[in-house]
Design goal:
With about 500 residues, the chain is α/β, with parallel strands linked by helices. The chain has 23 helices and 20 strands.
């Protein structure tokens, strides 16, 4: 008496197929689960026993062996309850073995047989579609999994309904995709009075996915500006929405199976741990940088973050991937985000104000900003000072551009980049440019080239900084719908880097 069912084991956003094998053999009554199960999987025995008892199905007085194959792949999570129960029912010949063998299942069982929603339904559905299997999951996880569209998703409320579906007594219709999450009310850029240079930098950062540092006294509007970044970003493309939703599915952040077209905006507190920012924990969960994939990561009070946490951002910023390495797991997550950092010029924040500055000026500012390492600062494309807003500007009515106007220019610049990178599927924005691809698209006129070389020599710009200036200038040219990079574009790009390079 043996049967199989299928499920998945998660490694980051990848769902590896796992075959659940069940054998019922003569011997002393026992219920054993092997194949590197963790504690939650081992405890499935008691949940399954109670759920079957609620259905008036008694386990035979024989040895029940469950093997999770491949046996050397770690199995974690309570979603193994349902596939183990299905394989067991098939071995007992309660449901057809042929159907269980071509079905993928995941779900946690309550003691009364109800199915509890689990994380990772979207990546599991993608694996099921690749294998050509149907997916059975809890009813609450069905709308999320149905977004894949290439396989039937059977969203079952409980084990009894699953049994009736397999036997044909009451087939369950495939689930429909969840609703597209309605856009949140986004804060408008028009609310920010003054700060025209900072608004321009925000527009450039949005157009090319460039990293931005805002440096200014308390109350100058740094956080206010960063909070309006989502309002000028284009919506996620279908591919980007699926990528982002897979990460959020693993983290359990999808609301009722809905997928959002809004770009993520994550703003962790400066007391967050390294595992919270980069990823980790018991099951190597995604961190804030991965939850901000295809969106924005806003780090307020940038120098207040622990230095080791800040330095761990250096590699993910460059590669767009983060490897979470732990003793029992090596998991890779995507993390292609735009970093917006905000910082005061010194500990007290008033280094630029002679009336309020402390006696340690300028040493206090050097010590405070010295917490940000040079290699990390070199990876930030735009750096600018945000001066305090004058009272005369506060008394005037808002007369700047609204977010919709700026967003239209950003969208046009992104469209230019999409057309340019049509033959390079790994490139999406100018921030992704490097090597020969950068040389091909960053064509600079003679005057601009001369200006760039003089600035690189005068301000000791590194090779990385040199290339980042070119990427930034390419984005500025895209905002003007210019095919070539000219000297004014180079000049504006350089103006956003001299704060640190001149030191």
């Amino acid at each position: 008496m043996s049967a199989i069912c299928n499920t998945v084991a998660f490694e980051g956003v990848t769902a590896h197929p796992v075959e659940v094998q069940c054998a019922i053999t003569p011997g002393l009554p026992a219920f054993a689960i092997v194949g590197l199960p963790d504690k939650a999987v081992s405890e499935a025995r008691e949940r399954i026993r109670a759920a079957l008892n609620a259905l008036a199905i008694a386990l035979p007085s024989k040895r029940i062996s469950i093997n999770l194959s491949p046996a050397d792949l770690p199995k974690e999570g309570s979603h193994f309850d349902l596939p183990i129960a299905i394989a067991l029912l098939a071995a007992l010949e309660v449901i057809p073995k042929s159907k269980s063998a071509t079905t993928m299942a995941l779900g946690e069982l309550s003691l009364n047989g109800a199915l509890v929603p689990v994380t990772g339904a979207l990546p599991a559905a993608m694996t099921a579609a690749e294998k050509g299997w149907d997916l059975i999951c809890p009813a609450a996880s069905g709308p999320e999994a149905a977004w894949v569209g290439a396989t039937d998703v059977i969203a079952s409320p409980g084990l009894a309904e699953t049994l009736h579906h397999f036997t044909g007594q009451a087939p369950i219709s495939p689930a429909s995709p969840g609703e597209v999450t309605a856009p949140n009310h986004l804060k408008d850029l028009r609310d920010v009075k003054g700060q025209h240079r900072a608004k321009r930098a925000l527009e450039i950062a949005a157009a090319g996915r460039h990293h931005l540092l805002l440096l200014g006294t308390p109350g100058s509007g740094k956080s206010m500006l960063a909070a309006r970044m989502p309002s000028i970003l284009p919506p996620l493309s279908p591919v980007e929405a699926l990528e982002t939703s897979m990460v959020h599915s693993i983290a359990g952040l999808l609301d009722q199976g809905g997928i959002s077209r809004n770009r993520p905006f994550r703003e962790p507190h400066h007391t967050a741990s390294m595992a919270a920012i980069v990823g980790g924990g018991r099951r190597a969960q995604p961190g804030e940088i991965s939850l901000a994939h295809n969106g924005v990561l806003f780090l307020d009070e940038f120098p207040e973050f622990p230095r080791n946490v800040l330095d761990t951002l250096r590699q993910p910023i460059e590669t767009g991937q983060v490897m979470v390495a732990r003793a029992n797991a090596h998991v890779s997550y995507p993390c292609s985000f735009a970093l917006i950092a905000a910082a005061n010029p010194c500990k007290c924040g008033f280094m630029y104000d002679p009336a309020q500055a402390c006696a340690r000026v300028p040493d206090c500012g050097n010590d405070y900003l010295g917490r940000i390492s040079g290699p990390l600062m070199d990876r930030i494309d735009l750096r600018l000072e945000v001066p305090p807003v004058g009272f005369q500007d506060l008394d005037r009515p808002a007369d700047g551009e609204d977010s919709a106007t700026v967003a239209a220019r950003v969208a046009a610049a992104r469209d230019n980049q999409t057309a340019r990178f049509s033959s390079h599927p790994d490139l999406r924005t100018n921030a992704d440019l490097s090597g020969t691809a950068l040389e091909e698209v960053a064509t600079v006129d003679a005057e601009g080239r001369e200006l760039l070389l003089k600035a690189a020599d005068r301000f000791n710009i590194t090779a990385r900084g040199y290339h980042r200036v070119l990427r930034l200038a390419r984005t500025i040219a895209d905002l003007e719908d210019s095919q070539h990079i000219r000297a004014p574009h180079i000049g504006e790009a350089l103006s956003y880097r001299i704060i640190r390079d001149a030191d």
